[in-house]
Write a structure and sequence with these properties.
The complex is a heterodimer of chains A (95) and B (331). Chain A is α+β, with helices and mostly antiparallel strands. Helix content of chain A is 17%, strand content 21%. Chain A has one domain: Phenylacetic acid degradation B (Ubiquitin-like (UB roll)), CATH 3.10.20. Chain A contains 2 helices and 3 strands, in the order ββαβα. Chain A has a 3-stranded antiparallel beta sheet with strand order 2-1-3, with helices on one face. The longest helix of chain A is centred in the middle third of the chain and has 12 residues. The radius of gyration of chain A is 22 Å and the shape is elongated. A two-stranded antiparallel sheet of chain B has the order 1-2. In chain B, a hairpin with a 4-residue loop joins β1 and β2. In chain B, α4 packs antiparallel against α7 and α6 runs parallel beside α8. Chain B is globular, with a radius of gyration of 22 Å. The chains are: A alpha+beta (95), B mainly alpha (331).
Chain lengths: 95, 331
C-alpha cells in the first residue's frame, strides 16, 4: 500500500446505547489512531454520541448506483412476501 | 458527506437533451442528487466552486476572530470564542468533505486557495481592531451566513445539504454570542457604546455585500436556482437580513449607518441605500485591507504544518510495513 496523500476515513457515531452507529461524515487522517482523535474533535463536540467507528473509505464496497433499478426493484409482484396474502379464518384471532 | 472512496470514476457522459431533461426532472421532483449519480458537468463544476468557496470562507473566517482569543475580556467570553472558532474549523472540514465527493481533492482545493485562484467570502478581508468587532462578526456576519445557509439545507446535492444541516445546528450559538457582546457594550459606558457603534458602522455595508451581487448582475444565479442549489436569490436573502436586523439594532440603541433606511408600508420591507459595488469587487479581487494578510497566514500555517503531515504519514507507512512483515512471518 502506498501512502502519498493523507487518506480519507468514514466516521460512524452511536448517539446512545441501544441505537445503531450511523454515518455522520468523513475526514482525512494519516492512520486509524489520528482518525479516531479527529473524529472525536470534529463530530462529537455537542454530545452527539458515546461510541465512534472510523473506517478507511478505501475499504468500503458500495453498490453500483447504475444498477439501483434492478438491485432494489420494488417487490410489488411478490405479494406472497406480505402477511395479508395468506387466508386465515377471522375467528382464529390475531396472527 | 460521503467519501471519494465511494465516488465512481467520472465516466464520459454524453449530455444529450434527453439526459439533461431527465436530470432536470429529478431536480423538479425534489430528488436529492448523490455523489455517484450521473450529473451534468456544469452542475458538478458549479458545486465544486460554491462548496469550495464556502469551505475556504469557514477556514479563513477563523483568522479575524482568532485575533482576539488571547485578548478576550474575561474567561466566559474567551471560552465561547474558542468554541466558536473551533466550530468554524469543523464547518470547513464538513464542507471540504462534501466538495471532495465531486472528485476534487483536498490538496487541490488548498492549493487553489493559496495561489489566489479560489475565492472566499470578501467579508473576511476586513480587520478586527477592537473587541466590538468580535461581537459584530457574530451578530452580523454569522447572521448573514445563517440567512444564506438555512435554505442551503434543502440544496439538491445530498452531501452539501447534509453538511449544511450540521452547520446550521451549530451556527445559532455564534450569532447569539455575538449579539450578547454587542449588547453588553451598547449598554455599558459611553466609550463602550461608541466602540459598538463604530464597529456597526464598519461592518454594516460589508455584511450586506456578503449576499453577493444584485440579481441583475449575478451570473450564476439563474441556473443555480433552476438546479435548486440556491432557493432564494441574492437580493431576496439580503432583504430578509435587513428586515431581521433593523429591530435587533433598535433594541440595543444602535443606529444602522444608512440614512435611506426606512420601512416601506407598501412593500412591507425596509428600503435601504445603494451598496457600493465598486468596493465589493475591489475586495473580491484582492484589494481589501486584509486580503494579503489572510492568504499569508493560511500559507504560513500550511507550510509550517508540512512536517507534521509528512511525519504522520511516514509513521503510518512504517506501521503498515511492520504489520505486513509480521503477517508474512506468521504465515
Amino acid at each position: 500500500m502506498t501512502l502519498t496523500l493523507t487518506p480519507l476515513w468514514e466516521v460512524f457515531i452511536r448517539p446512545r446505547n441501544g441505537l445503531n452507529h450511523k454515518h455522520v461524515g468523513s475526514l482525512h487522517a494519516a492512520d486509524s489512531e489520528l482518525a479516531m482523535q479527529a473524529a472525536r474533535d470534529v463530530y462529537t463536540r455537542r454530545e452527539e454520541g458515546n461510541s465512534i467507528w472510523v473506517v478507511a473509505s478505501s475499504e468500503i464496497v458500495a453498490s453500483d448506483p447504475d444498477k439501483a433499478g434492478e438491485n432494489f426493484e420494488p417487490a410489488a409482484d411478490k405479494v406472497y412476501r406480505h402477511p395479508s396474502f395468506y387466508d386465515i379464518p377471522d375467528d382464529v384471532g390475531h396472527m | 458527506m460521503y467519501s471519494q472512496g465511494l465516488t465512481g470514476e467520472q465516466s464520459e457522459l454524453e449530455e444529450t437533451p434527453e439526459f439533461l431533461a431527465a436530470f432536470q426532472a429529478r431536480i423538479d421532483r425534489e430528488e436529492k442528487i448523490e455523489p455517484n449519480d450521473p450529473m451534468p458537468a456544469a452542475y458538478r463544476k458549479t458545486l465544486i466552486r460554491q462548496i469550495g468557496q464556502h469551505a475556504h470562507s469557514e477556514i479563513v473566517g477563523m483568522l479575524p476572530e482568532g485575533n482576539w482569543i488571547t485578548r478576550a475580556p474575561n474567561l466566559r467570553r474567551k471560552a465561547a470564542l474558542l468554541a466558536k472558532v473551533q466550530d468554524e474549523g469543523g464547518h470547513g472540514l464538513y464542507l471540504y468533505a462534501a466538495a471532495e465527493t465531486l472528485g476534487v481533492s483536498r490538496e487541490q482545493m488548498t492549493e487553489e486557495l493559496l495561489c489566489g485562484k479560489a475565492k472566499y467570502s470578501s467579508i473576511f478581508n476586513y480587520p478586527t481592531p477592537t473587541w466590538a468587532d468580535i461581537g459584530l462578526i457574530g451578530w452580523l456576519v454569522d447572521g448573514a451566513a445563517i440567512m444564506n445557509q438555512v435554505p442551503l439545507c434543502r440544496c439538491s446535492y445530498g452531501p452539501y445539504s447534509r453538511a449544511m444541516i450540521r452547520v446550521c445546528k451549530e451556527e445559532s450559538f455564534h450569532q447569539r454570542q455575538g449579539y450578547e457582546i454587542v449588547r453588553t457594550l451598547a449598554e455599558g459606558s459611553a466609550e463602550q457604546k461608541e466602540m459598538a457603534q463604530d464597529a456597526l458602522n464598519r461592518w454594516w455595508w460589508p455584511s450586506l455585500m456578503m449576499f453577493g451581487p444584485s440579481d441583475s448582475d449575478s451570473v450564476n444565479s439563474d441556473q443555480s436556482m433552476k438546479w435548486k442549489i440556491k432557493r432564494f436569490t441574492n437580493d431576496e436573502l439580503r432583504q430578509k437580513f435587513v428586515d431581521a436586523t433593523v429591530v435587533q439594532a433598535e433594541k440595543i440603541g444602535l443606529t444602522i449607518p444608512d440614512p435611506d433606511l426606512k420601512w416601506n408600508e407598501e412593500r412591507e420591507h425596509y428600503d435601504f441605500g445603494a451598496i457600493d459595488w465598486e468596493e465589493f469587487w475591489r475586495v473580491v479581487k484582492g484589494g481589501g485591507p486584509m486580503n494579503r494578510d489572510r492568504i499569508a497566514a493560511r500559507k504560513k500555517a500550511w507550510d509550517e504544518g508540512a512536517w507534521v503531515r509528512e511525519a504522520a504519514l511516514a509513521h503510518a507507512r512504517k506501521r503498515l510495513e511492520r504489520e505486513a512483515a509480521a503477517k508474512e512471518a506468521a504465515e
